[in-house]
Structures are given as structure tokens and as C-alpha cells.
Amino acid sequence: MVEDFTRSITHWRYKNTKKIKNYYHRVEKKIYVKPRNSIDLRLHKKLYYYQDDNFINYPSDANFMPYIGIGVCLMFVLGLLFIPDEPLSDAGWFIVILCSILTVFFLVYLITKPKKEQILNRRDGLLTMTGFFWQNNITMHFDKVEFGYSTGGEDGLGAFLLEVIRPNDWQTFDYFGYGGAECYESMSFTTWYMDKNRPLPPGAAFDRFREQDFERRKAEGFPKPLYPSKIKTPEATKSQQAERKRIGGW
Q1: DSSP annotation of 6
Q2: Is residue 37 a contact partner of residue 185, using CB atoms and an 8 Å limit?
Q3: I want to staple 189 with a disulfide (CB 3.0 to 4.6 A). Which of 33, 105, 178, 215 is the partner?
């Protein structure tokens, strides 16, 4: 069944565009490398909720975060209260109280949070990211969205993952990775998919949509790509590539 993930635009630009453009960890929209093959949704439903030649609906980590928070906090509380043979110290009671408060916080957040969505809308050139905690989802034109990479901890864990920079008054980020890939591979896949003047990215996930996508671009005269690429992005067949070059000139 074809699903429609069209969402209304909520933000048109960043308020601090100059600051964002100069952000040290910024990742430009570009195809840097060939991303790993996209896996067919019908075989691996855990990777994506939905994907076709118009939309990709990612499973957002924001939907799982309160469950993780509740689980970790309860583990600390139960561990401190029932495992030690000696009475808790003041520091131990502080941790118990803090974790209890956090458990309530995550529980309230789980019940009251808005629906969290991450959507790539190739058809209309829109990206939907999650809002910060109780903030509603944010939808912007993809060409206006800015990306960066995570810095991770001191040991490097969690570093170099692709993130969307939210258009808030304060700078917050939404992890927007592709299958756990590092930032430049994730950015390559995201840019490739969102450049609707290019063929769909490689992999079985899009094979059944390639012909109709090719015919759409052919009817439009094979317009030039919207975003730059360091690698070639050929059509699925040599005959299609020859037709694109004859009609579109690239």
C-alpha cells in the first residue's frame, strides 16, 4: 500500500543562518561516496518504516529514548536499594532520589510527548525532523536544512554521526543517520535520495521504483542535478544512461 508522508512546512529558514553556515562540524549536502546498498523494506522492516521513490519514513530514536531512560534509572534505583549489604551513603541516596525523579520525568514525557517523525520527502523536496522534547516535528525545504556531525564522548563513542541542526533559537540536533553509517556516507545517501533529478540510490530497496522514476525524469527532460557529487551516479542500465545523456546532456 502506498503511503503519503506529506507534512506541512513549519519553518522556512534559520534565524542565525550566518552562525550555522560557519559551524565547525557542518556537513555540506553533497554525494561524497557511494553509500551501501539500500535494503528492501519488505525483507528488513526494522530498518525503515516505509521507503519508496517519494518518501522514506525513518524510525526515530526519539520514540525509544524515554523507554531507555526509564529502564536505566530503574536499574540504578533497584541496584542501590536492594543489592548493597551496607546502608546507603548520602551520595547513594542522592543518586536514588535523582534517578527516581528522572524516572517520573521520562514516564510523563513518554505519555505526553508528540509523535516523533523523521521523513525524507523526495517528491516535494522536504525534510521532517523531530522537535526538541515536547516541541512538535519540524518540516523544512531540504535545500534550507543544515547538517553537522556528532562529536561523541572522550573515547570517540558516538562520534561522526550525521545530525540535522534544528532551526531553534538555541542550537539542538536531531540524529539523522542512515543505517548506522558515518556522517559522510549518511550525507551521501540522503543527498542522493533527495536529489530527484538523479536516479534513486543503489540497492534492492528501490529496484521496483527505478523504471517509473526514470520515466518521470525523462518526461521532465532530465534536468541537471540539484546537488554536487564526487562520484558518478549512472542510470540502472546502459541504454537508460545513453538516453539521459542524449536528452539531458549529462
Answers
A1: -
A2: no
A3: 178
Q: Using N-to-C axis directions, what is the helix angle for 238-248 and 210-219, rounded to 10°?
A: 20
- If asked whether residues 90 and 150 sit together in one domain, one would say no
DSSP-assigned letter for residue 9: -
Backbone angles phi, psi at 176, to 5 degrees: -135, 55
Q: Considering 96, 112, 128, which residue would you say is the last residue of a domain?
A: 112
| Nine cell digits for residue 205 | 530497496
Number of structural domains found in the chain: 2
Give the Cα separation of 246 and 193 in Å (integer).
23
pLDDT, one tens digit per residue, over 8-51 is: 999 999 988 888 888 889 999 999 999 987 766 554 445 557 88
The residue range of the domain holding 203 is 17-60+116-219
| Same domain, yes or no: 98 and 148 | no
| 75 and 193 part of one domain | no
- Closest by CA position to 190, among listed 146, 223, 130: 146
Cell output for 33: 561516496
Grid look-up 525532523 returns 129
| Residues 45 and 125 reside in one and the same domain | yes
